[in-house]
Amino acid sequence: MDLNYGAEYEDFRKEVQAFCKEYQGVSFKSESNENTMSDALSGSSANKKSKKEVTRSEWQQILIEKGYIARAIPKEYGGYGGETDIIKSRIIATEFSKAKVPGGMGGQGIDMLVPTLLEWGSEEQKQKYIRPTLHGEMIWCQGYSEPNAGSDLASLQTKGELIDGNWVINGQKIWTSTAQYSQMMFCLVRTEPQAPKHSGISFILIPMDTPGIEIRPLVDMTLKAGFNEVFFDDVTVPEENIVAKRGEGWSVANSVLGHERGSLADPNATMNRLNTLISMMKEQTIDGRRLIDIPSYRDRLMQVQGKVMASQAHSLRLLSSKINPGQNVKLGGMIQKLVGTELRHELEGLAIDVLGEIGTLYEDSPYLKEDGSFQFTYMYFLGLIIGGGTNQIQKNIISERGLGMPKEPKVTEAS
Amino acid sequence: MFFGLSEEQEQFQDYVKKFLADNVTVDEIRKIANGEDAALAKEIYSGLINLGINALLVPEEYGGLGADLLSAVAVAQGLGSGVGPIPFAGAYVMAPIAINFAGSDEQKAKYLPQIVSNETKFGVGLSEYVAAREDAGIDLSGGKANGKALFVIDGDEADYFLLANKGGVLFLVDAKDKGIEITKLTSVDKTRSYLELNLKNVTAEILPGSESDPKVAKKVLDAGRIIFAADSLGASESMIEKAVSYAKERKQFNRVIGSFQAVKHMCAEMASDLEPCYAMLWQAAHSFDYEPDEARLQACQAKSHISEVAKMVSKKATEVHGGMGFTDLLGLHYWFKRIGLNRQLLGGPELIREEAAEIQGFNQ
């Protein structure tokens, strides 16, 4: 066991700490409730009453110049042009979260499309899409799920035909987050109807202002339109908008799905939310008694803290396995989505319970604590338990790939 | 940066696991548990002592290996996985730590080398300090101990007992002292010994460091709790392996039961809740030696959290085995009971969580 990162990294930590000090209290122009909620989800909290105001896009630029985000993305595509360094990434995440300085933008484009293009994209595609995406000027949505292709995603039916050098796309996508704000979609489309289901899919980039696209917002239980249905009626895009070759879309998508599952429940964010919960339990009272002084609440808090501490230590072990080849983490990475999303849901739910009736208030109600972020996040994480590969699908993956248990025998097609 | 057991620590653990796998089958555990084969019990005990597990935590200047608690954790995981029917947490972890941290120079020079040679064996009873039940409790005055110590561990062949009063003063008593009456307590877990001591005017040799500094007793307690957590983790790992391999063999409805999602999901739940416990345990052991500010909270949370996960595993793994899991024939219950005893020793989860809250100043 050696938890020291070494002198070089401690210098780097000091540099990051200095940066955080300089930008402590930075906030974003035109801050809306939308952003407050996304801060609660990511566990960060930008100070709303600060004097330092920047746009999200300016903040992206500042962070890229320091190499705090887009670190390993080549300069020519708008990144920092450094080497991947997971210890530095960890230091950045930890110090930003301690100082409550907001991190870089997330989203489907930055988190998923950029790594995909770096791995699979043509030179032209990299040149064209990565820079504006990193700078927050090009927002992406992901067109994967369909009404009849959820957990069994590979059975998707949205059809793409190559006609006169253009893809003509027809069909429907669902659960498409942020489609209404996006300039672009990366989309899985069946282009080889004769091929077996996994090898008949292509990965195609679609501008959202293309004629024939209709977006219908889908309001979820948080009462926000987090999702959309997207309909395609003879949507026509140039042939070169395909990423990788025809029929390789499933492999392309899978290289990104792995990335998504890891990022859904960041242990740093969970620790921040735990700290927010603890502060609240010290401040709020029932009949003059602090919530934290009520033994049954306190015991539940301690149980959740134990789980959060286990997750934190586990993430250190995962980090270690990435820099020490040969270290065996067995199921290590596979369990993150399942354990992380369940834990966040439990934590936010505990906050609601200790708030009692106040925990049922919502939206613009008086008496809300923490802007109602516990209520919103509790429900939102139920969505994450279902999305990104349901937690039941995760259990199949863990038992089959992690524990070597057999797949369920295929049921012969019912008529 | 490296987070995990070192190669050496893993190797040591593998020796322990291999020794138990090769020498201690369920039939042999049953014989030992039923007290039917004293010679066999002795043979297994000396086999493990030959690996050097007794000398781990004794400093090098007293002839020991001078290892840190993480090494002992590696061993305890191995012992738990094979329900090793020998003393460890008390005799070879808590006793040497207590003597090393609280003993006088003379006491260290006298006892520590004897732990290395295994000439002197220690039973340990801290229940009176952690959570004294009715009818128990020890009065310590004028160099004499009076009262009753319950739930003393590792004491079957002990030459001395390490005990504590409510105030955390640690002391040694000679097992041959005429004032000690030793009664065996039968517990559900018959792989380890459990005693009651009645003390009448017994000469108490106080470890002076524990009188001057109340933190020492906590340190001994933390070490014991981390080791019991490690034992439960090892036992849980073993139960999951057994459940998974049984599920891959046992057939019903013309299929192995491990192909049913109901069974697969139980296995996935066990595995995914246990997996983060490894890192949590190792972090707690590391903090014990190197991060004093974190150490107490880490030890408390590791013991209580791992106890909860292990309880869930012991139940689900038994269920995966169906009726066979319930039988004595299969012997899975030895793991189930080992986890059950570890959970209560040195404080159950609720008591320890309350302590964790106190450490952080939450309950005023």
Indicate the CATH class of the largest domain in chain A.
Mainly Alpha
CATH class identity of the largest domain in chain B: Mainly Alpha
Q: What is the typical, i.e. mean, pLDDT of chain A? A: 90
The largest β sheet of chain B comes out as: 4 strands, mixed
For the secondary structure, the number of strands of chain B is 10
Please name the defining characteristics of this protein:
heterodimer; A: 415 residues; alpha+beta; Butyryl-Coa Dehydrogenase, subunit A, domain 1; Butyryl-CoA Dehydrogenase, subunit A, domain 2; Butyryl-CoA Dehydrogenase, subunit A, domain 3; 4-stranded mixed sheet; 4-stranded antiparallel sheet; 12 helices; 12 strands; B: 364 residues; 14 helices; 10 strands
Can you tell me about this structure?
The complex is a heterodimer of chains A (415) and B (364). With 415 residues, chain A is of the alpha+beta class. Chain A has helices at residues 7-22, 33-42, 56-66, 86-99, 108-120, 123-134, 249-263, 267-283, 295-323, 336-355, 373-386, 391-402; strands at 27-28, 53-54, 140-143, 159-163, 166-173, 184-190, 201-207, 213-218, 227-238, 242-243, 285-286, 289-290. Chain A has three domains: 7-105, Butyryl-Coa Dehydrogenase, subunit A, domain 1; 113-128 and 139-256, Butyryl-CoA Dehydrogenase, subunit A, domain 2, CATH 2.40.110; 264-402, Butyryl-CoA Dehydrogenase, subunit A, domain 3 (Up-down Bundle). Chain A is built from twelve helices and twelve strands. In chain A, strands 3-6-7-10 form a four-stranded mixed beta sheet. Chain A has a four-stranded antiparallel beta sheet with strand order 4-5-9-8, with no helix packed on it. In chain A, strand 8 and strand 9 form a beta hairpin. In chain A, helix 8 packs parallel to helix 10 (336-355) and helix 10 packs antiparallel against helix 11. Chain B has 364 residues and is of the alpha+beta class. In chain B, strands 1-4-5-8 form a four-stranded mixed beta sheet. A four-stranded antiparallel beta sheet of chain B has the order 2-3-7-6. The radius of gyration of chain B is 20 Å and the shape is globular. The two termini of chain B are 38 Å apart. Chains A and B meet through helix 9 and helix 12 of A and helix 9, strand 10, helix 10, helix 11 and helix 14 of B.
